[in-house]
Amino acid sequence: MWQGTPQGVGGYPKFFLILLSHESLENYYKMNFALMQYHKYSLAELEEMIPFEREVYVFMLIQYLEEEKKRIDSKKKAF
């Protein structure tokens, strides 16, 4: 495994800054609030996540909610 300090301009902080550059600070806090209120994540869990890990979980949650909505809608149409 590669060890040591990152070489180049910026290193790890710049890498993660680029990863999060598409998300506004306002959106970051709103998403954290929604994840804590409605999906029972703790703030510590959210802040300990690697930035791309958080995006993966949010993407999976969105897919799950869309599938649940389709399932509920199909049940309503059946009645």
**SS strand fraction:** under 5%
Mean pLDDT: 80
Radius of gyration: 18 Å
Unreliable spans are none
What structural class do helix, strand and pairing data support? mainly alpha
What helical percentage do the residues reach?
Answer: over 70%
Q: How many distinct beta strands? A: 0
- Shape descriptor reads elongated
Order of helices and strands: HHHH
Whole-Å distance between the termini? 58 Å
Overall domain count = 1
Question: Helical stretch count?
Answer: 4
Biggest sheet layout: none
Feature tags:
79 residues; mainly alpha; 4 helices; 73% helix
Kindly summarize this structure in a few lines.
This protein is mostly helical.
Describe the structure.
By secondary structure, the chain is mainly alpha-helical. 73% of the residues lie in helices and 0% in strands. It contains four helices and no strands.
